[in-house]
Amino acid sequence: QVYLVESGGGLVQAGGSLRLSCAVSGGTVSTFVMKWFRQAPRKEREFVASIAWTPAVPTYLDSVKGRFTVSRDNARNTVYLQMNALMPEDTAVYYCNTGSVWGPGTQVTVSS
C-alpha cells in the first residue's frame, strides 16, 4: 500500500517562495509518475505538475511554467514542488498524487 504525505505549505506574501514535499512510503518513488494538483476554494482540482520516473521529464500547468519546479529525490523517496514568484491566485490546497493514491494535502496561502 502506497501512502503520500505532503508538507511545506504555509502563508507567504506575493512574490515569495515555498517548497512543498511529498514523502512516499510503501513504494519506490523512482518507479512512479508523480503529480501535483491543487484545489482552490469553490474551484475544481487542477493539475499543476508531474515528473515521470525515467526519464525524469517534468510537465507543468501553463500558468506556473517558469515559476514552479518539480523534482524527485529517489534516495529520500520524496518529490518536491519548488514554488517561486507566488501569486494570490496560487492559493489552494496542494495535493500529491500517483495513480489512484492521494495525499491529504497541504494549504498554501499567498497574500497580496
Largest beta-sheet characterization: 7 strands, mixed
Radius of gyration: 13 Å
Strand percentage lies at over 45%
Shape: globular
* Low confidence ranges: none
Number of helices: 0
Order of helices and strands: EEEEEEEEEEE
Work out the helicity level: under 10%
**CA-CA gap between termini:** 40 Å
SSE-based structural type: mainly beta
The number of distinct β-strands equals 11
What do the pLDDT scores average to?
Answer: 94
Provide key terms for this protein.
seven-stranded mixed sheet, mainly beta, 112 residues, four-stranded antiparallel sheet, 11 strands, 0% helix, 53% strand
Task: Give your account of this protein's structure.
- Helices cover 0% and strands 53% of the residues.
- With 112 residues, it is mainly β.
- Strands 2, 4, 5, 6, 9, 10 and 11 form a 7-stranded mixed beta sheet that branches. Strands 1-3-8-7 form a 4-stranded antiparallel beta sheet, with no helix packed on it.
- A hairpin with a 6-residue loop joins strand 4 and strand 5 (46-51).
- The protein is globular and about 40 Å long.
- 31% of the residues are buried.
Give a quick summary of the entry:
This protein is an all-beta fold and 112 residues long. It has strands at 3-7, 10-13, 18-25, 34-39, 46-51, 58-60, 68-73, 78-83, 92-98, 101-102, 106-111.
Describe the secondary structure blueprint for this structure.
Elements: E1 3-7, E2 10-13, E3 18-25, E4 34-39, E5 46-51, E6 58-60, E7 68-73, E8 78-83, E9 92-98, E10 101-102, E11 106-111
Parallel strand pairs: 2-11
Antiparallel strand pairs: 1-3, 3-8, 4-5, 4-9, 5-6, 7-8, 9-10, 9-11
